[in-house]
Amino acid sequence: MSRTRFLDKTLLAIARVAEQSFFSEEHARMKGLLQALDVRIKLLSFLFIIVLISFIHAPQSLWFLYGASLMLAAASRVPLGLFVMRVWLFVPLFSAAVVLPALFNVITPGEPLWIIVSLQKSYSWGPYVIPQEFAVTRQGLWSGIVLVSRVAASVSFAILLTLTTRWSDIFAGLRALLVPRIFVMTLSMTNRYLFVFLRLIQDMFRARKSRTIHPLSAADERGWIASRIGVIFRKSLEMSNDVYLAMLSRGYHGEVISLVRFRTTAADYCWLALVLAIGAALVAAERGLLR
């Protein structure tokens, strides 16, 4: 089997990003539970859930919220395989660097569960101490479970929001909730022109590949990639100026008028009340008010 070249891998990665974005838009257009909610209510409820997760310390409550995200994904017609894959693609990336060191008694002292190395004596360098027994502690393992559960639940609801809501609706909802317009405008322009440059990069790689007669070395390919970075940076500066002048010529005065029209129904208020009630119950259980 022939080895896939560096350019081929890059083209495949670009196509994969574009495909994932397309499918996200497809899920947002489906008729499901979360797609039917008013985007303002959805933003407020998901923000409340994510903030709530950051204050919860009981793994059982975090697992309950993660399970709720799976049920919401199914009710919103989001494929569970795609949803779980996206969540657990990010969870190890964000949590491994923190969880792995915290497992050991060097960082988290406590009751040892698994002794990895036994030394003749303990060593210390200033404030740092290496104990005689280097081990995984019960307290470190428990804190790692809580952190991974918290990250998984938070990422699940964040991804569920983006999968079931179009980006244009999210930006319009943020502006309706009085988020500063410069912040919303920056996010909107970044999202829009990210895919413009994605297509530009894809065309550059395809043109380079179509004009290549014999395979290049890995060093030559990396050198060409580095030169394209400078070209893309120059084009981005030129395009930013052209886009701003085009916006001014079309009547832009600092506020983008959205065509999205919001309509809140009784189902939206019921959803918000349900989320608040579940949140209050979890906080009460966290504080031991529920027996």
Word description of this protein:
By secondary structure, this protein is mainly alpha-helical. The chain contains 9 helices and 4 strands, in the order ααααββββααααα. It has a two-stranded antiparallel ribbon. α2 (39-55) runs parallel beside α9 (266-286) and α4 (80-102) runs antiparallel to α5 (138-164). The radius of gyration is 25 Å and the shape is globular. The model has no long low-confidence stretch (mean pLDDT 82).
Taken from the alpha-carbon principal axes, the silhouette is: globular
Q: Which class do the helix and strand fractions yield?
A: mainly alpha
**Rg over C-alpha atoms, rounded to the nearest angstrom:** 25 Å
Strand order of the largest sheet: 1-4
The helix/strand series, from N terminus to C terminus, equals: HHHHEEEEHHHHH
Alpha-carbon distance between the two ends: 63 Å
Per DSSP E runs of 2 or more residues, the count of β-strands stands at 4
Low-confidence stretches: none
Q: What is the helix fraction of residues, given as a range?
A: 55-70%
Query: Major sheet: size, sense and barrel closure?
Result: 2 strands, antiparallel
What count of helical segments does DSSP give? 9
Our estimate of the beta-strand percent is 5-15%
What is the arithmetic mean of pLDDT? 82
